[in-house]
Amino acid sequence: MDVSLTVWIATLVVLLGVISFDFILVTRSPHEPSLRESSMWVSFYVSLAVVFGIGLSLVAGGRESGEFFAGWLTEYSLSVDNLFVFIIIMGKFAVPRQYQQKVLLIGVALALVMRGIFIAIGAEAISRFDWIFYIFGAFLIYTAWKLLRSGDEDEEFKENAALRAVKRVLPATSEYQGASLTTKIDGRRLVTPMLIVMVAIGTTDLLFALDSIPAIFGLTQEPYIVFTANAFALMGLRQLYFLIGGLLNRLVYLSYGLAVVLGFIGVKLILEAMHHQGVHWAPEVPILVSLGVILGTLAVTTVASLVKSSRDAREQRETVAAHEDEELVADNESERV
């Protein structure tokens, strides 16, 4: 794709405008969004992505549109998985519900900046070194293996070095001061737990970018598509947090589905590198095949997760009911005695 500087600037201006509008809404009226409000915003952002993908097919072609949709779906799925960690961080630091929107919005903005930097570095590396595909592919396969191994384990948040350094160097209050990052007590400037949470979210975003950028470069090498797919995947993540926060625990097989997707993209990257280096038996995987694998895996994962969660909930209700019946029978027998 030959994307002009004007198109890049226009895209960045629109994205900054959306983020700024979102930020103004949050700061002017901090609150926990209702289910209806969250649903409307998520639907709006998903519709924007679909319209953009269709428009891309009209302007650039069907292949580019397919690459965008494949990349967007992959990044969106990884973002949903990332919400697990966000929920854990919010719980660990006991962030008040009405201020969680601000934390998430700043986290999304930081993620967009970090991914933009990684995209620029990745695009430059790919243009100079073909062998970088092998590294990206091996990294994704390793990530997929880790997801498969930890699929049944309860995820927990572990403080990283940057977060420990901030907590050690900067004196902090024990309580939140509204949504403020700093406060003054007895003439001394202190940071609040809100700043600590921001650091936790920001450094976690950095780790997420290490997974997501190689994944999308396995689907397209067009920097413009890589960036816009990431941007649309991050848009609405704040509202998605409140919309499906209570449903995330039901997606018990999501890690396995993502492992399959990342493993597939990793193999695709290695085959593509071999094909470019003249290994004739290494096939090129068409983007429609990639899109089909991603859609099919996520659909099967979601359905299987919901079926298992419903079955487990039903068995739990039956166990509780049986236990209550046993207690009732025992009480009746003791009364007769």
Characterize the structure shown.
Helix 5 (132-149) packs across helix 7. The protein has a two-stranded antiparallel sheet with strand order 1-2. It contains 11 helices and 2 strands; from the N terminus they run H-H-H-H-H-H-E-E-H-H-H-H-H. The protein is mainly α and 337 residues long. The termini are far apart. The longest helix has 50 residues, at 287-336. The model has no long low-confidence stretch (mean pLDDT 77). The chain has one domain.
Short précis:
The protein has 337 residues and is mainly alpha-helical. The protein is built from eleven helices and two strands; from the N terminus they run ααααααββααααα.
Task: Please state the overall shape, judged from the principal axes of the Cα atoms.
Answer: globular
- Separation, N- and C-terminal Cα atoms: 86 Å
Strand order in the largest sheet: 1-2
Percent helix:
over 70%
Could you give the order of the helices and strands? HHHHHHEEHHHHH
What percent strand? under 5%
The major sheet is characterized as:
2 strands, antiparallel
Radius of gyration from CA coordinates: 23 Å
The overall number of domains is 1
Number of H- or I-type helical stretches: 11
Structure characteristics:
single chain, 75% helix, globular, mainly alpha, 337 residues
SSE map:
Layout lengths: L4 H24 L6 H25 L2 H31 L7 H29 L3 H18 L11 H9 L12 E4 L2 E4 L1 H25 L5 H12 L2 H8 L9 H23 L10 H50 L1
